[in-house]
Specification:
The protein contains 2 helices and 5 strands. By secondary structure, the protein is α+β, with helices and mostly antiparallel strands. The structure holds coenzyme A. Coenzyme A binds at residues 43-46, 51-57, 78-80, 83-84. Residues 43-46, 51-57, 78-80, 83-84 line the site of coenzyme A (COA).
Length: 102
């Protein structure tokens, strides 16, 4: 029997510029650019024992929701975001900007 899918709690750690799980073991790291108007997602990390369950995707959803709510655009420097998350969530491309525009 398949385990029920539960949406994990993702917390915004503003001082460390991260979105992270409660235990802080899985996280998405970003840097602010253009006076705080742009969120450059530089790294996503999930411990190997928890990979493949969509945890990185949940971290990205939280980060993109935050960016949209604050009228920020996103630079997908992290390859998980550019190569996996965005192709699977193409509507979020409207929030994305490339480094060239800066
Ligand atoms: N770049 C792009 N896509 C990647 C990837 C990478 N480096 N590593 C794994 N993926 C893809 C896999 O192909 C997988 O595809 P599948 O669903 O068809 O099997 C998919 O991510 C899994 O998605 P999800 O379950 O949401 O991700 P996750 O919770 O397993 O975490 C990483 C994905 C990349 C965060 C995790 O593997 C990790 O921490 N890796 C080490 C650090 C790293 O390489 N970070 C990314 C670059 S900053």
């Amino acid at each position: 029997m398949e385990a029920p899918s539960v949406t994990p709690m993702i917390l915004w750690n503003e001082s460390q510029q991260k979105f992270e799980t409660e235990d802080k073991k899985a996280y998405l790291q970003y840097e602010l650019r253009n006076g705080g108007k742009v969120m450059d997602i530089v790294h996503t990390f999930v411990p190997s024992s928890k990979r493949g369950l969509g945890l990185a995707s949940h971290l990205c959803v939280s980060a993109f929701n935050h960016a949209k709510a604050n009228s920020m655009s996103v630079i997908p420097t992290c390859s998980y975001v550019s190569d996996t998350f965005l192709p699977r969530n193409p509507s979020l491309n409207s929030v994305v900007q490339t480094k060239d525009i800066l």
